[in-house]
Design a protein that fits this description.
The protein is mainly beta. 13% of the residues lie in helices and 39% in strands. It has helices at residues 47-59, 130-135, and strands at residues 7-16, 19-24, 33-34, 38-40, 63-75, 82-92, 111-115, 124-125, 142-147. The strands form two sheets. Strands 1, 2, 4, 5, 6, 7 and 9 form a seven-stranded mixed β-sheet that branches. A two-stranded parallel ribbon has the order 3-8.
């Protein structure tokens, strides 16, 4: 198997009214897994520029980007895919209403919702440390490399 370079992605931890914004980023909702909004970094753009663009694409919301909160890695041992996610604490720059007519221009995100910490007990999400980091007061946290879920 050919060695692949790790992909770098940025993700937003957005708490609003004590609820965390998550997205289902599986076309056709083929997997019931939720994650923080964000995505792959484009060369020549800063991490905050990439994050603001990705969150706008995936949610239709503008954000203010704060400090880093989590570094998470995952990989697929079968394909060699390896991604490094950098999570930042963010706040909404404007209204927090999710527009029901919004559609992800890339066609990746199928749903987006705000979840309370208690709500997370009834859904599948990644990374496992998400609630502790989102509602925690830690400045930064590192999650060890874990295998991708399919």
């Amino acid at each position: 198997m050919a060695k692949l370079q790790p992909r770098i992605a940025v993700r937003a931890l957005i708490l609003h009214q004590d609820r965390l914004l998550l997205v289902n980023a599986y076309p056709g909702a083929r997997l019931d897994l939720w994650c923080a909004p964000g995505g792959g970094c484009e060369a020549g753009q800063s991490l905050p520029e990439n994050l603001a663009r990705e969150v706008m694409e995936e949610t239709g919301l503008a954000i203010a980007i704060g400090p880093p909160a989590l570094v998470n890695e995952f990989h697929d041992p079968k394909t060699g895919f390896h991604q490094i996610d950098l999570f930042f604490r963010c706040t909404l720059a404007a209204a927090a209403d999710l527009d029901d007519t919004w559609e992800d221009p890339e066609g990746v995100v199928t749903d987006r919702q705000f979840f309370s910490r208690a709500d997370l007990a009834r859904i599948r999400y990644k990374p496992d440390s998400l609630p502790d980091v989102a509602w925690g007061r830690q400045t930064a946290h590192y999650d060890p490399l874990e295998a991708i879920l399919k």
